[in-house]
Structures are given as C-alpha cells and as structure tokens.
Write a structure and sequence with these properties.
With about 170 residues, this protein is an alpha/beta fold. It contains eight helices and six strands; from the N terminus they run H-E-H-H-H-E-E-H-E-H-E-H-E-H. It has two domains: about 1-105, Rossmann fold (3-Layer(aba) Sandwich), CATH 3.40.50; about 120-174, no CATH class. The strands form two sheets. Strands 2-3-1-4 form a four-stranded mixed β-sheet. It comes from Tryonia myriophylla.
Length: about 170
C-alpha cells in the first residue's frame, strides 16, 4: 500500500521483498517473480552477467519489484541473500534510479545481512501492528538503526501502525 501510494504521488519506487512466500512482491506483480538467488544460480553466480532487467519487474501503479528470495529452510542464511541483493543492486547502480526504495525485511531477524539495507538508507520507517510480536520485531529494527547510525547518516523516522485501530501497545512502546 505504501509503495502504490508513493508511486501515485509521482515517486519512482522500488520495493524489495525477502520472503520465500513472495508476499511482498506477488501482490504488486500478480506472479512469482524470479528471485535474486534463482537468477544468480542461472548465471552460475557471475554477477557481471546479471542485468537490472533480469531481477527488476514492473508491478501495479508502476512500482518496480525485486525479490531477494532465500535458501531452503536449514540450508543457508537468508541474511546473506539480502546482503547479496543489496550488493548486486548497488553494483548495477539500481539504487540511484529511484526516489524511494522500500525493503520489506523480517524484523525479528536483525542480523548483519538483514540490516544491510540500512547502510544505504537515510531513514527507516517501521511498519507494525499493535501486537507484542510485531513490536518486539520493531524494537530489534530500532536497535539495528541505533547501531548503524553510529557509522552512517541514518535516522529512525517513526512507526506506522498498519491495519490496526488499537494503539495501546504502540503508544506504550513509543
């Protein structure tokens, strides 16, 4: 919803998903786009052979979409895949083509790989709901922002309560 709203306001938007279910990008494209990891496998991990059009797909309202993907459960590190996605997009200069880049990450896993997008961000906005688990994840992301802000010009811009009319836990957290 945020990507579409920003695109409708004239912004060039890239949404990057990192969930094996593709739930972030599927809703925008209407199909399961090839993941970064799938594309790299097809190119025998020759990064120089991967072009932006191989991994960036047009979605609803002109939102461009990338899906990082990930290894099968128990077979590797999802954070590594996120880090490689950031590396690939940076090397292809794709990061500089957009007004806004949204990275839909798993908030409760704030390892170095999942926190890699924060190295290139000016602001972090956390989308959450009023539940304990979501706010626990928000706290992990806020801790990552605090850590990264010591070496990068990064600021936490705030929290957005998504799909909730209740705010008691969000208000307590804030």
């Amino acid at each position: 919803n945020i990507s579409i709203a920003l695109a409708r306001r004239g912004k060039k938007v890239l949404q990057i998903g990192c969930d094996p279910k593709h739930d972030s990008t599927f809703t925008l494209t209407g199909f399961l786009i090839p993941t970064i990891i799938d594309t790299l496998q097809m190119k025998d991990y020759h990064y120089e052979d991967v072009w932006p059009e191989d991994v960036i797909h047009k979605g609803y309202s002109g939102v461009d979409c990338v899906e990082a993907g990930g290894p099968p459960a128990g077979a590797g590190c999802g954070g590594y895949v996120v880090g490689e996605t950031v590396k690939l997009l940076k090397e292809s200069n794709a990061f500089y083509e957009y007004d806004i880049i949204l990275f839909d990450v798993l908030g409760d896993v704030a390892c170095g790989g999942f926190a890699a997008p924060l190295n290139y961000a000016d602001y972090c906005i956390i989308i959450t709901d009023n539940g304990f688990d979501a706010l626990f994840a928000a706290n992990r992301i806020a801790a990552s922002v605090r850590e990264k802000s010591q070496t990068h010009p990064l600021r936490l811009a705030g929290l957005v309560g998504n799909r909730t009319s209740d705010r008691d836990l969000i208000d307590k957290y804030v």
